[in-house]
Structures are given as C-alpha cells and as structure tokens.
Amino acid sequence: MSDGTVGKTRRVLAGAVLACAATGLGACGLFSAKEDPYVDQPVDQLYNRALDALGQQDYKAAAKGFEEVDRQHPYSVWATKAELMVAFTYYESNKYDDAIIALDRFIQLHPGHRDARDARLKAELAIDHLAGKEMDIGRYYQRQGIYIAAINRYRTVVERYQSTTHVPEALNRLVESYTALGVKSEAQSAASVLGYNFPGSDWYADSYYLLTGEDLRPPSEKPSWWKLGIF
Length: 231
Known about the structure:
Blueprint: H1 3-23, H2 43-55, H3 59-72, H4 77-92, H5 96-109, H6 116-143, H7 147-160, H8 167-181, H9 184-197, H10 202-212, H11 224-227
Helix pairs in contact: 2-3, 3-4, 4-5, 5-6, 6-7, 7-8, 8-9, 8-10, 9-10
C-alpha cells in the first residue's frame, strides 16, 4: 500500500470517528452492534415478577427472573432466596441436571443456611429422578429385547447414581439382561455385587433364583406369583 493510500485511509477513518462523536456512537455504522441496556430494577419487583412466572408455569421466564435478582442485587437477602428458587424452578420443569448444578452452587455458597438441608434433599431427589429416567428407558429396551442398550442404561444407574434407590433393581436387571444374552460371567458378577450390598432385598432373591433355580425366601415371604406357580 502506498503512502498516499495509507494517508487517505487514515483521513477517511478519522472523519468517520469525528462523525460518530458528533452524532453519538449508536448512530454510527462502525459501532452498530447493540446490546440490551442494563436496567436496574427494584429487587422486590424482580422477585415477584419471577414468582408470578413460576405460578403460571413459565419456567424459562421464572428462572431468568430469579437469576436477574441475583445478578442485580447479589448481596441482598432476596438474592439468596432467588438462588434457591432458580434451582427449584429447574426442578419443577424436570431439568434435573440444571437443578443439581444450581443446588450444589447454593450449598457451596451458603453451607450454614437454614435452607441448605432442604437444598441437599432436593438435589438428592433430582438425582433420583435422573436415575429413574434411566431405569424407564432401560426397561423399555429390555422389553424390546434390545439388551445391549438396556445394559448401558442400567450400568449408568449403578455407576453414576450409586446413592439412589434404583441401584438394587438396576443390578437385578443387569443379571436378567446378561442372562438373556448368555453372558453368564457378567450376570454372576452383577449378582455378586447385588448380594454383597443388598443381601436381604427381593431383587437379590430374584437374581439368585434366576441363576440357581433356588429361592432364598421362606414360603411365607414368597410373592403371589410363586404361590400361584405362574413364574
């Protein structure tokens, strides 16, 4: 580029900048990118608006509203409530992964808060729901005879959601699915884990019977299908 061209380019840019300065940056094409202006709003107005959205089951607007409370008024009592309400909103809208993240954040920020125990409970419930969804899908695949897909779902429950109530059934379903595939070693392995961790459960009794033909339960505790001979 020649010196003359460089000089001309500089003069054009300088003129454009001066024009922007005179008319305001928003009117200048060089600075045309626009963002929504930040509007500071009273905290109670923001919070109540989010509550109204939650009451109307507009979960997206509710979550956004509670997050805005925390963003605009981060050190207020309302912000602490809003942080918990964000998690609750996600929970109510079945967004359990987001709910767990929000609840974990609340617990970390407010470990001694009077609602921290409730937050932990909701986090555990959200995790249990996620495990339940995996079980539903796994049972569907198992009923269709798509055992590999079912096994993957059940293994997810056992490996990722170990503290949930669904683990004993997941292990039993693994025994069933591996047995259906003829993979006896894996079936026995799953049954061993089930027996070690849940030795007195009906799920273990079912798995044990499937593998050995022997029912561990006394006659008085045998399920109705056993007594009727319809297994």
